Structures are given as structure tokens and as C-alpha cells.
Amino acid sequence: MSTLPPPLEGVTVVAVEQAVSAPFATRQLADLGARVIKIERPDGGDFARGYDTAAAGLASHFVWCNRGKESVALDLKDPRGLELARRLVAGADVFVQNLAQGAAARLGLDAATLCAADPRLIAVDISGYGAGGPYAHKRAYDMLVQCEAGLVSVTGTPEQPVKAGIPAADIAAAMYAFSGVLAALVRRAATGRGGPVEISMLESLAEWMGHPLHHGMHGGEAPARTGVAHAVIAPYDAYPTADGGQVLLSVQNDREWRRLAEQVLGRPELGDDPAFATNTARVAHRGKTDAVVAEALARLGTAEAVERLEAAGIACARLNTVADVAAHPQLAARERWREVDTAVGPLRAMLPPITLPGGAEPRMGAVPALGEHTEAVLDELGVPAGMRAELRRAGVTA
Known about the structure:
By secondary structure, this protein is of the alpha/beta class. The chain is built from 17 helices and eleven strands. The radius of gyration is 26 Å and the shape is elongated. The two termini are 45 Å apart.
């Protein structure tokens, strides 16, 4: 039986992108087989290249978001560089940009302008707050949008709101841009027309706020911050174990509470105690509920606690560190780790979550050095060698 080709094989994407939202979106496209040409500034490139040096000397954000792409360094402020970028877009199926609001339009690289000139092109504008409205030109970094979208207000402890530990606004926008491109490709296959795709970081993350929003808008109050505890279920929290770990457990109904009391807590009488027998009672007496669970788990090592909870049919999880995730037995058993090439040698990376049985494995191509593919791509465009050398000398390319 032959293997199906990558689903986006033959699709060419050109991106003028930086930071996380657009690069993470186009990396998904590259993983699925698209050719992604990343246009960067000659003087340093995507500024995410300079965020840190944690990935064996490279920036961890950049390694995460940019594998499988070709880097072409062009100065878009120079008319010659801009013309080359337009020639690249003319041969593309998809164009993606997340420049500061208004910058793409000044260059003629906004979705509306490009799609008016080429009805088959799919052009994606990713912005912080959208093209219109009073926030259109407001700076929109991830943590700022987390605050504006209310995510920070529902995350943390009762005493302290906190941001998410990952760039949630960037990731939300990236994944809607990714799915928007896929939807537009399906529509183009049926109609022959591409069209603009508009993505706002605020609107993307506000959609993810659906539960708190609907809870608060339709008669209730916004859910309280409860750390890792659940606002309306008890026990549903993380508890320390004897060897310094923590185990989170979740009791979803009163039958499970009785099993927990008998088989893990060693206190079967609590199963029918009016102070604990129903979830309403356990939430009303949350302090006492947590105390009896914490006392029992504090006598057990992490592995034993998990074993007992699972034997009792109680949902549970270890509170893992980042290092624990990197060594997670489930990811190892499912062979989710690969290596990708970089300028500093191979680095470990995880397969993307989309699995297509019977298809080719995702293309986890190399992380490009700045301008690594400029010469080859300009040669494809038919730019003569002498002109390429002159553009390099002038700093238009790198």
C-alpha cells in the first residue's frame, strides 16, 4: 500500500513574519508539506532570533516556530527588495504577514491589495486587535493581549492574577490563521478563488475565554481564581506527596468520592458523612475536604499515590515540570520525538499533534540560518548572478 503524500505538497507560502503568531502558523503549514519562504530583514532578521540563546546557542522561540522554512533576507524598504518580495508573492498560493498595523498596507502587501490583484491568492493579515476600532494601532504583545482578553483575570490564585506560562494569545492567533488558510484552500479548490483571511490576537484569545465569558455574561459571576483547584468541584486540586512531588486528582461524582474515601483515604465513613457525601457539601467545606485528602496523600510517594488513585478509578495526574514532559513516558512510547537540523547541529523536537495514519510523516525540516536560501530563491526568480552580487553589496539582500 503506497503512502499518501503530505497534504500540502505543492502549496507555496510566502511570509513576512516575526515573533510567534505568524511563524507558528506557517510552521504548521511547513510540517504538512507546504514550501514556506520566510522573508526576513537582512540586518538581524526576525527579531525572535535574538530572544535568547537557550537552544544550544539559538533562540528557543525561533527554533520552535521556524523549522522547515527557507530564509530569504530582503530589505523591503528598498524598492529593489520590495519588488523581489512581490515577485515571490506572485508565485505563491498563500501569503502571511504580521507586521505592525499599517506597515503591510504601506508596502502594498496587505491582504486586500494582494487579493484584489490576484483572486487566487490566499492572503493572511494577523494583527493584535484587528484593522479597525479604537485599538487598531495599539501595540499588541502577547502578555498585553492576555490582559486585554481577560485571561490573566481568571488565571492564578485568589490573591494574585498571573499570565499564562506560554504565549497563549500568539498561539491562539497562529492556530486560527493555520485553520483559516486550510479553509481558504478548500474553498479555492471548489471556486478557484482565494481571498483575504483576517486574524486578531484579541479575538482569538477572547474566543478561548468562552467558558468564563458565557458564565459571566448570562447571569453568573466570572469564575474565581483558584490556582489549580476547580471552582465548583471538590476535591479537584493538586496535593503534595511524601517524596516532594504533587498529584492532582479529580472527583467527578459522589460514587467516586466514596471510592476515594474507602480505597485511598482509608476513611470509608467519609463516604456517607453529610459534610462530604455530596459535591455541594464538599465545596461548601472545601478546606476540610482538601485537608483530609492532603493528609492521606502526604503519607504516600508520588508513584504509589497515582497507583492507588488509578486502582480506585479516580482521575489523576502528576504535576510535571518541563523536564518531566521532555522525558514523558507516553511521548516516548508513541515515538513523538525527532531531531531537526540547525546551524548548531541537530536539536530534539516533537512531532506536530496532527497525525495522518497512512500518510507521509510530517516534514520537520531544518531551522534556517538568516538568508540561507536567498541566493537559491533569487536564482529561481531568474535574477542574474551579477545583479544578486550587487544587491548583496548594497545590503538589499543577505
